[in-house]
Amino acid sequence: MDIKQLYREIVNEHNLNPEHKGKMEDPTIVLRGVNPSCGDDITLSLKVSDKGIIEDAMFEGSGCAISQASVDIMAGQIVGMTKEEALKMASTFMGMIKGEVTDEEEIESLDEAAALRDVAHMPARVKCAVLGWHTMEKMLNGDND
Ligand code: ZN
Predict the structure, then answer these.
(1) Model confidence over 51-81: pLDDT tens digits?
(2) Collapsing DSSP states into helix, strand and coil, what is residue 81?
(3) Which DSSP string do the residues of 29-74 spell out, in sequence order?
(4) CATH number at residue 83
């Protein structure tokens, strides 16, 4: 299996069988993120401890395969991270999607989220791929409107 095929498999799997889709009991922060150009509409819930550790992340809503897979991968990866770690990861991810981060080691640090790197070559899909990450960034920065 070549790497592009592997990436497609990862995106498909998260789209069809999301691990973090559903309603959260007592979230700390909830924020809706919408990408009108595609119709992606998600609501992200985070549970953040007093020490700033992300203890859980869940999303609800609907959208295209790229937006759904991206938010599901993101939710899985930020659980257990500090706010700072999650924000750093969001910035690396968005840099990769915009084609600004090309360093292999940096991209590998994204783990499964690296599967979305080909979106960098599809300008129309960039907003789909970054929707969940951008929403998470706003939540952790306390920019909830
Ligand atoms: Zn989309």
Answers:
(1) 999 999 999 999 999 999 999 999 999 999 9
(2) coil
(3) EEEEEEETTTTEEEEEEEEE-TTSBEEEEEEEEE--HHHHHHHHHH
(4) 3.90.1010.10
The token duo for 41 is 């509409």
CA of 120 to the centre of ligand 1 (A): 14
Query: How many angstroms separate the alpha carbon of residue 29 from the centre of ligand 1?
Result: 23
In a domain, 145, yes or no: no
Distance 126 CA to ligand 1 centre (A): 8
Structural domain range at position 28: 3-140
CB 57 within 8 A of CB 86: no
- Asked whether residue 32 is assigned to any structural domain, the reply reads yes
- pTM, full prediction: 0.94
What is the whole-number distance in angstroms between the Cα of residue 35 and the centre of ligand 1?
Answer: 7
Question: Structurally, how many domains does the chain consist of?
Answer: 1
